[in-house]
Each structure stands twice: as structure tokens, then as C-alpha cells.
Amino acid sequence: FDNGALSGLNIHITAGPTREPLDPVRYISNHSSGKMGYALAEAAIDAGANVKLISGPVNLPAPAHVERVSITTAEDMLEASLEGISNCNIFIACAAVADYRPTSIAEHKIKKGNEEIMELHLVKNPDIVATIAARVDKPFTIGFAAETRDVLSYAQGKLERKNLDMIIANDVSQAGIGFNSDENAVTLVTRDTHIEIPQTSKRQLATLLIEQISQLYKTSK
Ligand code: PMT
User: Fold this and answer.
1) Where does CTP bind (predicted)?
2) Ligand 1: centre distance to CA 137 (Å)
């Protein structure tokens, strides 16, 4: 692999979960550990890129030479993703962004009442990767699709709907890959190719993905 394949290019990568607060002590989130996104950041650095890593709350150190921006909510992630976007060449959305957030954040801890059922009201969060891909100065934009069934057809749908250049389909129903594990297996989907990458470490997978991304980026120019 050509170590300078992404030399001089600016890459933004989102990673980890978002946290959507309900009150001062509670939030809605998911099981993303950030491992996949951080591995991509490392692989992109190795390929010579300038990397901004927009990260939700995770227990990982910032990879060497990466500019890490730590955020909490989807709205914060969008704002940080848009910062410097007109100079961004490649945008990779690996974060597991909460699709909805509580309509309001209680100022004080919500107290337990007598009722057995409690209803939460949620409102849709902005779609970060779709917002980026809708810009006139759109970077080469790559999303992930975390699915538990009909993985390829849902991934294809997201590729089209969000106007992405590539989507990485991730079957998160299988034990040992996907959320929080050290290994992963994916299918890289574009409008005209499907490339299966069998199970391997997230770090090794990241190198393979960055290699494919740099090739497709170059042919898109
Ligand atoms: O962090 P790890 O523990 O290593 O796990 C890795 C992973 C499973 C989180 C990762 O490989 C992965 O699949 N990430 C995408 C998770 C996801 O939420 O996918 P989705 O199918 O819901 O979203 C589709 C795409 O839209 C994703 O690129 C997502 O970042 C993006 N999105 C979704 C919602 C939203 N409001 N804004 C977005 O940008």
C-alpha cells in the first residue's frame, strides 16, 4: 500500500456514539466504542492525510497526529463536522449518531412517579452525513450502514437517499463484529461495485478501507 496515497488531503472522520441528555444525570446513547472510527483515523494518518476526528464520548486516547474534537450530542457533532468543511476532501461518517433526541432536557433530575408507564418524547436529529453530502462543495462522502437484517439492500438505500459516494455495510447482528468488538467484517458498496472484506481486526480493516477509498477518490476526480 502506497504510504502517501492520501498525502496532502484533508479528511474528517466521525466516530463513537452521540449522547442525548434527558436530564442532568441521564442520556440516550448506543454501544459504539469508537474503535472502528479511531482505526480509520490511524490508517488515514499512515496514508499521509491530515485528519480531524470528530468523536463522541469514548474511552480511547486520541491517535498520534490526529486533531480530535470531542463532542457529546448529534447537534454538536454536526457543528464540528461543518467546521472547515469547504477544505475537506473526504468525509467518513463512522459515528453511531442518535437518530432522535429528547424534545426537551429537564433542568433537574426527573423523579420517579407512581405511574408504571413513562413516555418519552423524541425529536429527529439532523442527519450529519446527508447534510454534508447535500452541499455544493460536497467532499467525497462515505457513510456506514449498521444493520441487523437485509444488510445490503438497506445499505444501498442509504447510499442513494443520503447521496453518498460509498457506504460500508456492517452487519451488526453477528457476535464478534460490529459494535464494541475488536474485529469487524464489512461490504463496501458503491453505485457499481460490491467488495466484501472478511472478518479481521478493525485496524487491518481500516487500512484496507482507506486503500479502497483513496483509489475511488482518485478515480472520482
Ligand atoms: O464504534 P465501534 O464500537 O467500533 O463500532 C463500529 C460501528 C458498528 C459503530 C461502525 O462500524 C458503524 O457501522 N457505524 C455506523 C453506525 C450507524 O449508526 O449507522 P446507521 O445505519 O444508523 O447510519 C447510517 C449513516 O448515517 C452512518 O454513516 C451514520 O454515521 C450517519 N448518520 C446517521 C444518523 C444521523 N443523524 N447522522 C448521520 O450522519
Assistant:
1) 99, 109, 126-129, 144, 158, 162
2) 23
User: Is the minimum distance from the CB of 74 to ligand 1 under 6 angstroms?
Assistant: yes
Domain count for the chain: 1
110 in a labelled binding site: no
**Can you give the CATH number for the domain in which 167 is found?**
3.40.50.10300
Confidence of residue 209 (pLDDT cuts 50, 70, 90): very high
Burial of 109 (0-12, 13-18, 19+ CB in 10 A): exposed
**Can you tell me the distance from the alpha carbon of 110 to that of 12, in angstroms, rounded to the nearest whole number?**
37
Ligand 1 center from residue 176 Cα (angstroms): 17
Residues 98 and 148: beta-carbon distance below 8 Å: no
Q: Is the pLDDT of residue 3 over 80?
A: no
Name the least confident of 27-31, 79-83, 109-113, 131-135: 109-113
Residues with catalytic annotation? Answer: 30
**Residue (of 97, 84, 85, 100) closest to 32 by Cα position:** 97
Percentage of residues in the chain with pLDDT exceeding 70?
A: 99
For residue 43 and ligand 1, the question of a CB distance below 6 A is answered with no
| Interval 74-115: pLDDT, tens | 999 999 999 999 999 999 999 999 999 999 999 999 999 999
Average pLDDT over residues 106-129: 96
Is 166 a pocket residue for ligand 1 (Cβ < 6 Å)? no
Residue 216's φ and ψ, nearest 5 degrees, are -65, -35
